[in-house]
């Protein structure tokens, strides 16, 4: 079994925590549904226009698991053109 995690530092188009919460919840819920990953906001919870979201997945094929998280990053960029992924880190745990 291979465990991979991804951390995405994202700029958000909002100036309120309420607006941020809606965007983050939407990204997490749709990623869980579409990619079957575990996800959580892991940093910058009190900063209005930024967040760090982490995703984790497990699989038997190292390259497939890594590719899934790479596709997730692409999907966020395509589905949410209003947000900007400014940094990403995908690593094997």
Q: How many H/I helical runs?
A: 2
Give the radius of gyration: 13 Å
Share of residues in strands: 35-45%
Low-pLDDT residue intervals, each spanning 5 or more residues: none
Instruction: Quickly give the structural class.
Output: alpha+beta
Extended strand count: 4
Largest sheet properties: 4 strands, antiparallel
List SSEs in N-to-C order: EHEEHE
Return the average pLDDT rounded to an integer: 94
Please give the share of residues in helix.
Answer: 25-40%
Termini separation: 11 Å
Pfam families: DUF503
Protein name: DUF503 domain-containing protein
InterPro entries: DUF503, TT1725-like_sf
Organism: Geobacter hydrogenophilus
Keywords:
93 residues; alpha+beta; elongated; four-stranded antiparallel beta sheet; 4 strands; TT1725-like_sf
SSE blueprint and pairings:
Layout: E1 2-11, H1 17-35, E2 38-43, E3 50-59, H2 62-79, E4 84-92
Antiparallel strand pairs: 1-3, 1-4, 2-3
Mind explaining what this structure looks like?
This protein is an alpha+beta fold and 93 residues long. The protein has helices spanning 17-35, 62-79; strands spanning 2-11, 38-43, 50-59, 84-92. It has a four-stranded antiparallel sheet, with helices on one face. A hairpin with a 6-residue loop joins β2 and β3 (50-59). The longest helix has 19 residues, at 17-35. It is elongated, with a radius of gyration of 13 Å. The protein starts with a strand and ends with a strand.
